[in-house]
Amino acid sequence: MEIPTYLLFVLGCLGATDVTLFHSVAHGIRSHPDSAGELITHSLRGPTYAILFLVIPNFALHGLFAWGLVFLLLFDVGISIWDFSLEQGSRRFLGGLPGGEYVLHMLMAIVFGAFAASLFCFAYPWFTAPTRVVYAPARVPALLRLTLLVMAIAVLVSGIQDAAAVVHLRRRGFRGSPAPWRNPADKSFHATEVKPPQTPAWTRLVLRSAGLYNLVWGAWVILFPEALFRWAGMPPINYPQIWHCVGMLVGVYGIGYWIAANNPFQHWPLVLVGLLGKILGPVGMWWSVAHGGLPHKIAWICLTNDLIWWVPFALILRRVFLVRHSAASGSDCGGR
Fold first, then answer.
1. What DSSP string runs through 298-315?
2. Where are the beta strands (DSSP E) in the chain?
3. Residue 73 contacts residue 116 (beta carbons within 8 Å)
4. So where are the chain's domains?
């Protein structure tokens, strides 16, 4: 479990940066009434990551405990989606979600996907083993395991503080009320609320279609890891767990596209990362086929996996650029 442990450490460092720099220093959301919903998601994430920081470097979960770990990761994905949906309203009276925090969230999502994929590669035998918890410390420096223990305590305390902040805000009667330092009668107060550009229906259709395609393709790869190789006339893969990891990463991208469909103008980095992957993938495929590493037949998967998405993804990013440019110059093209 060395790789999952290191990735979990990176994820913990990114999370600590997010809480310290953006939640506390920049916005102080624990004292802001409109952030109560977001604080609830953070309070749920506290014990979730405390369990991960404690278990992953030290224990092997066999049988039903392994399925419990799957549920825990799915629960965290659900919390993240809920958190994303609340952040825009939670930070409206604070000037919106900072660009740096948004980029940090995107990096955390990528690292989480890599962590989950690597975890199931190593933990694949756990699901067929008798149900039990085995003390099996990862072969990493003892200092790293100690650091993750400290992170487990810190994230649990942070979650408790977030829950306490929610209770405190609601006792004071601050349920979705405007920020106390802002005067709603002030014209500048209303001027700060910028109406978001209207999202065209076709962008939502494209991104949701891409998300659904990725989820289906990822599930197919996980459930039938040898099917593609048989179709392409290639020898069966020696380590199907690696192919399972590919399927999980593809599925995580699908979740990202589905989130971006709600507001491409806010979540455009997800579209950009997806487009880069869909460009670099065929480039790598062409190189492998040209040098005899892969048969020509397998290159056909690039058609539906990558090539058909180039134009719609590029058009979405172009529209985002035009809207952001017009907003910066003071004009309005959101309704075009």
1. GGGHHHHHTGGGHHHHHH
2. 59-62, 132-135
3. yes
4. 1-191, 194-336
The Cα–Cα gap between 27 and 166 comes to 16
- Alpha carbon distance 11, 16 (integer Å): 9
pLDDT of residue 181: 38
Token pair 């093209």: residue: 333
The verdict on pTM exceeding 0.85 is no
> Model confidence over 87-102: pLDDT tens digits?
667 766 666 666 667 7
Which residue has 């048989």 as its token pair? 230
CA-based R_g, the chain, Å:
22
Which residues sit opposite 279 in a β-bridge?
Answer: none
Tokens standing for 315?
A: 């058009």
Write down the mean pLDDT value for the chain: 79
Instruction: Using the structure block, give the residue that is written with the tokens 């395991």.
Output: 145
Give the pLDDT confidence of 172-218 residue by residue, as tens digits. 654 444 444 344 444 444 444 445 566 778 888 888 899 899 889 88
Location of structure tokens 């949701």: 208
> What whole-number distance in Å separates Cα of residue 112 and Cα of residue 108?
6
In angstroms, how far apart are the furthest CA atoms of the chain? 71
Q: How far is CA 60 from CA 56, 67, 73, 76, 137, in A?
A: 7, 12, 16, 20, 8
**Of 164, 186, 167, 183, which is closest to residue 175 (Cα–Cα)?**
167
CA–CA distance, 47 with 49 (Å, rounded to integer): 6
Alpha carbon distance 319, 264 (integer Å): 9
Closest CA to 139 of 335, 295, 5: 5
Across 33-44, average pLDDT: 80
What is residue 270's DSSP assignment? Answer: H
